[in-house]
TrEMBL record:
InterPro entries: Cro/C1-type_HTH, DUF5753, Lambda_DNA-bd_dom_sf
Protein name as it appears in the record: DNA-binding protein
Keyword DNA-binding: yes
Organism taxonomic ancestry: Bacteria, Bacillati, Actinomycetota, Actinomycetes, Kitasatosporales
SUPFAM superfamilies to which the protein is assigned, alphabetical: lambda repressor-like DNA-binding domains
Pfam families in UniProt: DUF5753 (PF19054)
Entry keyword set: DNA-binding
GO molecular function: DNA binding
Domain DUF5753, chain residue ranges per copy: 97-271
Length: 283
C-alpha cells in the first residue's frame, strides 16, 4: 500500500483549500469515489485538487458542498483559488496554464505569434516588452523565466498530445533579429520532429476561414469536461458551455482542413529558419 503523502497547505492557495477538502472528506468518512459520485469528475481529478495540483471548478465545489454537507464552504471560496496565480503569469492565464498540463489533447491556433510553449527567451522578451513597455527589467526577467519553465513542461513526449495551427505570416514577419528568428524557428521545427506537437501552417493566400481573429486553445480531458480558452491582448476567457465548446471544436476541424498538411508545414518552417540563418529572408 502506498505511503500517504501529507499536504503542505502553506505552499499555495490551491494547496490550502485542497488540504481542507481532504480533511473534511475524511472527517465525513467518504472515499474519493463516493465524493465525486453523481458528478462529471473522476477520482484522480479530485485527488489532484486535494494535493493542490488543480484548482477546484465551481460546479465541482458546489457538488462537494452538497456531498460533504459543508454549508457552501468550497463554492464560496472558489474565487480565492481561482485568483491565486503563479509568479510571472497573468491572472487570467493561471488556471489555463494548470489545466493545459493535465489535458489529454490540446488544439491551438494563433494568427499573429509563435505559440507561447514554443517560444525561446528572445521571442518571449520581445512579446513582453511590446505588451508591457512599463515593466522593469526584473519584472520582464520574471515573466521570461516563468514562461520558459512552463514551455519546458511541454517539450517532452509525455506531455499532452498537441495540434498547432499557425498563420504563414508569422514566418514572414519576424519580431526579433534574423539570427534569433532562425534559432526560434529551428527550435519549433525540432520539437515537431520529436513529435512534441503536430504543426500546420495556414497559407497567406488562403480564403476566409474560422478563427479569423483571436488566439484560441481547445483542451479535452480524460476526467473532466472539455474547455476552450480565448485570449486578447490583456484578457482571457475560459468557456465550458458544452454547446459553445462543441462549436469551437467543429470550427477547429474546418481550420485544420484549410491549413497545409503537417509534413509540408514542417518543411515550410525549416525553410524559413534556414532563410533567416543565411540572410535570405522569407518575407
Amino acid at each position: 500500500m502506498p505511503v500517504r503523502k501529507e499536504i503542505d497547505g502553506s505552499r499555495s492557495v490551491p494547496a490550502f483549500y485542497g488540504k481542507e477538502l481532504r480533511w473534511k472528506r475524511e472527517k465525513a468518512g467518504r472515499t474519493l469515489k463516493e465524493t465525486v459520485e453523481g458528478s462529471y469528475f473522476g477520482t484522480s481529478y479530485l485527488s489532484e485538487i486535494e494535493r493542490g495540483q488543480r484548482r477546484i471548478p465551481e460546479t465541482l465545489a458546489s457538488h462537494i458542498d452538497r456531498a460533504l454537507e459543508t454549508d457552501g464552504f468550497f463554492a464560496r471560496h472558489c474565487e480565492d483559488v481561482r485568483n491565486a496565480k503563479p509568479s510571472g503569469h497573468a491572472d487570467y492565464f493561471a488556471e489555463v496554464a494548470e489545466a493545459a498540463w493535465r489535458a489529454r489533447d490540446i488544439e491551438d491556433w494563433d494568427p499573429t505569434l509563435i505559440l507561447g510553449p514554443l517560444q525561446l527567451e528572445p521571442y518571449i522578451r520581445a512579446v513582453v516588452h511590446a505588451a508591457h513597455p512599463e515593466d522593469t527589467e526584473e519584472e520582464v526577467a520574471s515573466k521570461v523565466a516563468a514562461r520558459r519553465e512552463y514551455a519546458g513542461r511541454f517539450e517532452s513526449t509525455t506531455a499532452p498530445e498537441r495540434w498547432v495551427v499557425l498563420h504563414e505570416s508569422i514566418l514572414k514577419q519576424p519580431i526579433i533579429g534574423d539570427d534569433e528568428m532562425a534559432e526560434q524557428l529551428a527550435h519549433v521545427a525540432a520539437l515537431a520532429r520529436r513529435r512534441c506537437f503536430v504543426p500546420q501552417i495556414l497559407p497567406v493566400k488562403g480564403r476566409a476561414h474560422p478563427f479569423m481573429t483571436g488566439t484560441t486553445r481547445i483542451m479535452t480531458f480524460c476526467d473532466a469536461p472539455p474547455l476552450v480558452y480565448v485570449e486578447g491582448m490583456y484578457s482571457g476567457q475560459t468557456i465550458d458551455d458544452s454547446g459553445i465548446v462543441r462549436r469551437y471544436q467543429k470550427a477547429y476541424d474546418r481550420l485544420r482542413a484549410a491549413a497545409l498538411p503537417p509534413e509540408e508545414s514542417l518543411a515550410m518552417i525549416e525553410k524559413a529558419a534556414e532563410g533567416y540563418g543565411n540572410g535570405k529572408h522569407p518575407r
